[in-house]
TrEMBL record:
PANTHER family: MACROLIDE-EFFLUX PROTEIN, MAJOR FACILITATOR SUPERFAMILY (MFS) PROFILE DOMAIN-CONTAINING PROTEIN
Name of the protein described by the UniProt record: MFS transporter
Pfam families hit by this protein: MFS_1 (PF07690)
Organism: Niallia taxi
GO molecular function annotation: transmembrane transporter activity
Coiled-coil segments on the chain, per record: none
Ranges where the Major facilitator superfamily (MFS) profile domain occurs: 1-412
Subcellular localization: Cell membrane
Membrane topology value: Multi-pass membrane protein
Length: 423
């Protein structure tokens, strides 16, 4: 791995923040596996219970995160993160002893609420732990943590469940959160630093003008062209992915994957996303054109989703290794979308607004993720999963083309104006 990617880790504060994120991300995926195993296997409940679980996992990011983020921006970020982790330890203990689905869902909602408060604080802290020139590598490492734990978490969770039982991952998760707390204790206190270096309306804070501050975060996205484009692209991208994500197990069957080797397809996507993050972390030339990188990634992703749809219809036939290679490329392109997005979110947002802006942006993405599966499932019954794939792939490809054409047009227009000015 090139020194460029790991350079942020040479700064003690960022190293503590990143290490804590590793434990937090791992805990989230251990949690996700354990919850589904308990509901489906241990309690023998049906698809409706799983759907309710996934819905409750996502809702706090929409209805709690944006509104709580105003207080996150006002507060000491280190204190917020530590308190959130301590609460998560208590809540995973509750999940370990939860006797039935209603209580489990309540605890999941509360844990999701704490996570929706923790993440904006973590996003805010990134800018205070490294010099600005290392921001691309820092956000890439953050994305790399998330992508890597998507692979390791389920595998490790499955192994822990096999050895220690269905609820045992919660205990390991609690230990991980405790270790994250010990790492965050090494972070500097940045509250006074924020108030002294950023242009915050202190009078607004004194007057407790909550709604004004929340609207400022929303307006910042609306009136910052690059960030607005990135949030819109990312939200639409999530919607299109989750249109077919829940159908993937059925699509894989038609592509020739059995119950035993279906995991290879999912692992290929995860591996691609990790490799993509490493590549983007080592080559940071993309930071001058993040929207172009996102657009190219959408364009290529759309093409491979269309091919998968044609495979589901029987029009295209590939060996399993070919479909795994396609899944790997999809994961690779996923990093081409998520890493530049994360960079724009950080670089186009003032430090003192980071909590609000990141929470609002995440809420838009989560709304897409919550409504898309139901729409995809409904239309799959009406027109078939393969048509859903073709539609999602076509829309993804078209989105990439439109944004690229717009960027080229804007560049040519700027050159024309510059030429006229020089003449």
């Amino acid at each position: 791995m090139n020194i460029g990617l790991v350079k942020p880790l040479t700064f003690r504060a960022y190293r503590s923040l990143f290490s804590a994120q590793l434990f937090s991300d791992l805990g989230n995926w251990l949690d996700f596996v354990a919850l589904q195993v308990i509901v489906a296997y241990q309690w023998g409940l049906d698809e409706t219970a799983i759907a309710a679980l996934i819905f409750v996992l996502g809702v706090p990011w929409v209805i709690i995160g944006p509104f709580a983020s105003v207080f996150v921006d006002r507060c000491n970020k280190k204190f917020v993160m530590i308190v959130c982790l301590l609460l998560r330890i208590i809540l995973v203990g509750g999940l370990f002893i939860a006797p039935n689905l209603p209580i489990l869902l309540i605890l999941v909602f509360l844990k999701g609420t704490v996570a929706a408060i923790y993440d904006p604080a973590r996003q805010s802290m990134i800018r205070f732990t490294i010099p600005e020139e290392y921001l691309p590598q820092a956000v890439t490492l953050s994305q790399l943590s998330n992508n890597t734990m998507k692979i390791l978490g389920p595998a490790l969770g499955g192994g822990i469940i096999a050895v220690f039982g269905a609820k045992s991952p919660f205990l390991f998760e609690g230990v991980g959160f405790f270790l994250a707390v010990t790492l965050l204790l090494k972070l500097p206190n940045i509250k006074e630093h924020v108030l002294n270096t950023d242009s915050i309306n202190k009078e607004s804070i004194k007057k407790n003008d909550y709604w004004k501050e929340l609207i400022e975060g929303i307006k910042h996205i609306v009136y910052t062209p690059k960030l607005q484009t990135a949030v819109v692209l990312s939200s639409i991208g999530f919607f299109l992915i989750f249109l077919y994500d829940g159908l993937l197990v059925f699509i894989a069957q038609n592509l020739g994957f059995s119950q035993g080797n279906f995991g290879l397809l999912i692992s290929a996507v995860g591996l691609g996303s990790v490799i993509g993050s490493i590549l983007l972390g080592n080559w940071t030339g993309w930071k001058s054109k993040p929207l172009q990188i996102m657009s190219v990634a959408f364009l290529l992703s759309g093409f491979f989703i269309i091919v998968m749809g044609l495979g589901d219809m029987g029009v295209v036939t590939l060996p399993l290794i070919g479909w795994c290679l396609g899944a790997f490329i999809l994961g690779l392109m996923g990093s081409g979308e998520s890493v530049p997005y994360s960079y724009l979110l950080q670089s186009e947002t003032p430090k003192h607004m980071m909590g609000r802006v990141s929470a609002v942006a995440t809420a838009f993405q989560t709304i897409s993720m919550l409504i898309a599966p139901a729409i995809g499932s409904l239309f799959a019954k009406l027109i078939g999963a393969s048509i859903i794939l073709l539609a999602a792939g076509g829309a993804t490809w078209l989105m990439g083309v439109i944004v690229l054409l717009f960027i080229v047009k804007r560049i040519n227009h700027s050159k024309k104006i510059k030429g006229e000015f020089n003449n």
